Amino acid sequence: MAAAVNADVSDRLRCVANLLANPAQLDSVRIRCCAELLRTAVERAVARACGAEDSDQPVQALLLSLPSHVDADVAYDASQLWHALSRAIRHHGYELTPTVEELRGWHADTRDVAAALHSTLALSGTIDLPEGIR
Question: pTM for the full model?
Fold first, then answer.
C-alpha cells in the first residue's frame, strides 16, 4: 500500500485499516471519522493527479478537471467515491449510519482509486523516440 501511493494518502489508509482491525470499537462517530480520513485521502490523490497539491482549488473543480489528467473511468470512480464519502460524513440523524462493511468497501475503493491515480502519474513522462524521428 505504501509503495503504491504517496505518504499522506498511505498514512490515512493505514489509520483507517488500524481502526477496521477492531470493528467492535467502531461507533457511528468513529465510522464518520474514518470516512473523513478516506475522503481526504481521495482529495489528496486527486489534487496530486491534477497537479494542484498546493492549490486552494475546490475539490469539485478538481474532480471536474480530472478526466483531462487521467483515464475517464478512473476519474469517474474517484468522483463517485468522493461523493459517497461526503454523504457518509454529512448524514442526518434520521438516516442510517454507514456500516463497518460499507467502510471496508470504501477503504478498498480508496486504496484502488489512489493507486490508479498514482500509477497514471507514474506512466506519464518522456517518450524516447527512435533516432530517425527526432
Answer: 0.84
